[in-house]
Design a protein that fits this description.
This protein is an alpha+beta fold. 17% of the residues lie in helices and 48% in strands.
Length: 148
Amino acid sequence: MTNYKQLHILILFFVMTGCSQNILAACTRADLTGTWKIYSHLENYSTTWEYGVIGCNLIMPVSGQATSANSVCSHYIAWDRGTVTKLLLSGNLTIDAACHIVGVVTVGDQKRNVDGWISKGKDSISGMMWNPTVNGHDLSEIFSGVKQ
């Protein structure tokens, strides 16, 4: 009987200290699948001095890549108040069991490497993007998003 009490106390300890969270937090492609509302600060120094904020609807399919037919961004250009440019969004992201996301997306005609994380609740995402072909000015952008 004493061994059972010790086992129950040990199990209760692990549950109360959150050790079971690591087991529950494993991510799969299903956690990435769906519609995400993504927001970012966008700078495009490679062609013109465009900058502003961008809001995207990213639709990640069960497998394969997001296509520009389903995903689109609205770019609110800061220096030209009231101007909104629609940008097509496509790309491929992968997720590992630790909820780490990596991949490449194309926003308009600009490729961006992506490195991010999904939250423990699997309903929000954040990370950084950068243009792999431009040195210097266009180093990185941060993004965050919410699953719809």
